[in-house]
Amino acid sequence: MADHLLEHVRSYLDRDQDERIAYIRAPRWIGHHVAQDSHRRLAELLERPPSLRTQGLMLVGPYANGKTMIAERFAVEHLRTSPEQKVWIAQTREGAGLGHFYTSILQALRAPGSDIWDLRRKAEQLDHLLSSLKPRVLIFDEFHNALRGRARDVEAVFAFLRRIGRQYDISPVLIGEVVVSDFINGTSEMASRFDLIAVPRWQYDENYLMLLDSLEAALPLAKSSDLSSEPLARRIFGLSEGLIGEIVTVITKAAVAAIRSGSERITKGSIDELRHVPISQRRSSPLRESLL
């Protein structure tokens, strides 16, 4: 009966191996409590009244913990329900200074590029686009990339964030590692303009066990794996180090292996056979040492 699966997932058991594996590997939204709260607070930025001093948000947490997916899901849902695009996501470029930062935004707004050092032309082009497109929320993914330069370069980026609120009524959203919070809270001026949404590592608790149950219900394996049982849940947690991206990676790889082997279930032994190395150990892993 496959009672351990969601109803819409059960039909995939009748499909061929390649289709089932493709379904397992497809990106999937995990609506955990932090993600839902983040979407609520992002929606508040869209619904707020006009302001000359807009409030922004920071989504801060470790790498591979779902911050980008939270933002992208929110932007996609907005496009589905709104006649006008009011949410834009910029991938913050590597490199310091306004030249790189402006280019990140121009690329996000699908504008043609120009000489990266021609700041005046870029600023004029950007002002024209912001005035005509009238975005309500600008999301800067991997914002920590903009914080690696000289102090005056970072201050110029912060001045730009303040100006787009005053001049174009835009709320900036900064996504990145903990250094983003450190820089923003380094001055009272910037700290007063941004609220923090923490996206921490998962703890080994009831929420984590519920996450495992929800993932198992979404994977078309014919047999129950009981992922939230103590030995299996502990093993997955240890390999993932509490990072949701790594949790999903481990379970996805194990589910694909279960289909290919015909076992149709994930076990502690099958996870061990993956030889998955936790992120914190990869620099000193035996595989790396064999390459020297």
Automatic annotation (TrEMBL):
Pfam families: TniB (PF05621). It comes from the Bacteria. InterPro entries: P-loop_NTPase, TniB. Keywords: Plasmid. This is NTP-binding protein. It comes from Rhizobium acidisoli.
